[in-house]
Amino acid sequence: MTTVSIPRLHRFEAIDNVRDYGDYATAAGARIRPGRLIRSANHARATEADQARMGEFGLGAIIDLRRPSERRRQPSRRPVGFDGLVVKSDHDDGGDAPHMTFLRTSDLTETSGRRFMLDTYAAMVRDPAHIDLFRRYFEVLADQDRPVLIHCAAGKDRTGVLAALTHHALGVHRDDLFADYMLTNEAVDLKRRAPEIARKLRDMSGRRASHAAVVAFIGVDESFLDAAFTAIIGRHGTVDTYLEQVLGVDTARRERIMANLSA
Asked: 124 with 161: CB under 8 angstroms?
């Protein structure tokens, strides 16, 4: 495992889960440069101070992993002076995001919440819209040398899977890959926010959710990410095969990405 040499978590006024997912050692003996790979939740509530601070990253691209309906409901506020590329999905079925349907229609128990998350992760890596975005993201990493930010709604599930695939492609140790994923639980302050989220769920659905159910839904668990990798391996044999054959990360592209990101 690597030794963390930078503060990974960046506290913003109204953007959650902002952190650097670079600065890890790789199997090839290189190191991912800090400040080049940034992840977060959505930017819809970003304050002027948040926008200015986000602008300090010097982003060359933002990968917005949300569905079109999510973007319409919560449009992003871009960093001050942002002149980079925005990669987003045009796949729109006109319906609610799956997590909204779940919250409105399912029993809000720990068991149902965990089952939903496991199924969501397994389905995500097969979904055409996500595959398209993931593929375009890796093209961006190969084609430019400015910092890149990835985000979804909460910055934990879609963002977490894509960050983990990035780490795997770059040869980051599995322990570091999972540790980085699990940092969401620290970044979102589960203990403090769970009662607030429970109240919002009750207002939205008319039903009460247990503390354990809220934690299962708004936090992350290693078993969730493992479900994504298990689904990939079950269909493609290895994560490397999935990266190459589905996401277009062949040897040449991987080498270009590593060259752009290496310290």
From this structure: yes
Q: How many CB atoms lie within 10 A of CB 224?
A: 21
Is residue 243 annotated as part of the catalytic site, yes or no?
Answer: no
The CATH number given to 9-261 is 3.90.190.10
Domain range annotation of the chain: 9-261
Mean pLDDT for each 10-residue chunk of the chain (263 residues)? 60 95 93 96 97 96 95 93 94 67 68 88 96 98 96 95 98 97 88 75 71 78 97 98 98 96 89
d(CA 74, CA 66): 10
The number of helix segments (H) and strand segments (E) in the chain equals 13, 6
Find the helix packing angle between 110-124 and 98-105, rounded to 10°: 160
10 to 16, 20, 38, 215: CA distances (angstroms): 9, 8, 10, 22
Catalytic entry in 152, 197, 213, 249: 152
Rounded to 10 deg, the angle between the 110-124 and 158-169 helix axes is 50
8's CB contacts (< 8 A; 6+ apart) are 19, 20, 21, 23, 180, 183
DSSP label at residue 183: T
